[in-house]
Specification:
alpha/beta; Rossmann fold; 5 helices; 5 strands; 48% helix; 20% strand; globular
């Protein structure tokens, strides 16, 4: 399974990469929404894990762009700003799951399994 992780924090990118590659996932990393869009145009990803709050363009912008480009990829939003408003906005823009930061490797893997289970049920 090919995953794209988008976050402006290098520590989050590397932590996710280590955990996910150890579990056998193929992982690409992007430090911004713009970098993520470039990668999405070149490759097909089965899942997108993304931060909501990033400089220049945030996660809401990225989700909006994905919709405009008709890119239907499941999205797990990772954010340290887990207010009701933030969760509702992410949900409205198409996020499939909200994962509050900080999270453990087990929580990250459980979120991915949940999305995979939902896709299989469809």
């Amino acid at each position: 399974m090919k995953l794209l992780v988008v976050d402006d924090e290098g520590i989050v990118l590397e932590s996710c990469r280590r955990v996910l590659e150890f579990e056998g996932y193929e992982v690409s990393l992007a430090k911004s929404a713009d970098e993520a869009l470039e990668l999405i145009e070149k490759e097909d990803f089965l899942l997108l894990l993304m931060d909501l709050k990033m400089p220049v363009h945030d996660g809401i912008y990225l989700m909006r762009e994905l919709k405009n480009r008709k890119k239907d990829v499941p999205i797990i939003v990772m954010s340290g700003y887990s207010t009701n408003e933030t969760i509702a906005e992410a949900d409205m823009m198409g996020a499939n799951l909200f994962l509050p930061k900080p999270f453990t490797p087990d929580e990250l893997l459980a979120a991915i399994r949940e999305i995979s289970k939902r896709r299989s049920a469809r």
